[in-house]
Design goal:
Length: 315
């Protein structure tokens, strides 16, 4: 009978009941799965392992930068040791040429129980990022900044007329180090830097300051304008250095409690900082010289104010 044959293809097309099939699996399998993940995002891929290893290395370097600094060069290392910088280790390149400075550095470390470690030149190159270390490096902990209020209280307790330098828009750590050294040399009491957009006391600043950063307090200000107003409340005159000021260094009296504000050579002081200053003072120079480097300008003013204060003390 037609339709009841068991021959292949003779089955009734409208047969009722369950039909065999995939249950929708084939249809779902044909759906798109989105873009293919990057190789570094696939946990089974070698690129993923390489990425994770790089992240671990970067994290290690970041932690090291946060916890320690390396001062390099024989003179800076010796000067830091004489200044009693709180060093944690001295690295000396294997086979480095010996001289009086290297011997003195090793002797000073031995007297202060600072470990002296011999390492390869390649390793010290890697630690410093260059080969300008003269075969020696001094590891020091991260700089401990002073508090502005503590700085004011310390100067008040000394009974001296404070002499402070505030830096605005100074991003070169070498300038910071040079300013710290000048402030220390001319009897200043401290340096104030902003928390943001400013150089910090790094290994470069340690080196440029020749170890004076260990003895001179450096404070960080959350807001430099408010900090200057706090100094004014404490009786300080705030003097900003800029060309075309209403006063010049030749005529200004810097014998009282004074804050010197130094801006960058290019940008100068920010608007709010400039407006907060009691006085804008310029340094007389020959006409064809446009401006002085920030650290040089600070040193010139500090030297003149120190001279005025010495003369005031002379009977």
């Amino acid at each position: 009978m037609a339709g009841n044959s068991k021959r292949q293809g003779a089955m009734r097309k409208n047969k009722k009941g369950a039909q065999s099939g995939s249950g929708g699996k084939i249809r779902r399998g044909l759906r798109g799965k989105g873009p293919t993940p990057k190789a570094e995002d696939r946990v089974y891929h070698a690129a993923h392992k390489r990425k994770q290893e790089q992240l671990r290395r970067d994290a290690g370097r970041h932690t090291k930068e946060q916890t320690s600094e390396l001062v390099v060069g024989r003179n800076p290392v010796v000067e830091c040791l004489h200044a009693k910088v709180p060093a944690t280790a001295l690295y000396v390149v294997e086979g480095a040429s010996n001289d009086e400075r290297l011997s003195e550095a090793v002797h000073l470390c031995a007297s202060r129980n600072i470990p002296v470690l011999e390492i390869s030149r390649h390793e010290l190159d890697r630690m410093t990022g260059n080969g300008m270390h003269q075969g020696i490096g001094l590891q020091v902990p991260a700089y401990q900044y002073a508090d502005v209020e503590d700085l004011i209280d310390r100067v008040t307790a000394s009974g001296e007329d404070g002499l402070i330098v505030c830096l605005d828009n100074i991003t070169d750590p070498r300038n910071l180090g040079a300013v710290i050294r000048s402030v220390a040399a001319f009897g200043g009491h401290g340096v104030v830097i902003p928390e943001r957009r400013s150089a910090s006391v790094t290994a470069v600043a340690w080196r440029t300051s020749a170890g004076t950063a260990a003895r001179l307090p450096v404070a960080k200000a959350t807001n430099l304008t408010r900090t200057l107003k706090r100094f004014q409340e404490a009786g300080y005159q705030v003097v900003g250095l800029d060309a075309g000021g209403e006063h010049t260094l030749d005529t200004y009296d810097g014998t009282g409690p004074t804050v010197i504000v130094v801006g960058s050579e290019g940008k100068g002081m920010s608007r709010l900082v400039r407006e907060t200053c009691d006085t804008i003072m310029s340094i007389p120079t020959v006409e064809w010289v446009e401006s002085l480097n920030a650290s040089v300008a600070a040193g010139v003013v500090l030297g003149e104010f120190a001279r005025q204060r010495r003369r005031q003390l002379t009977p």
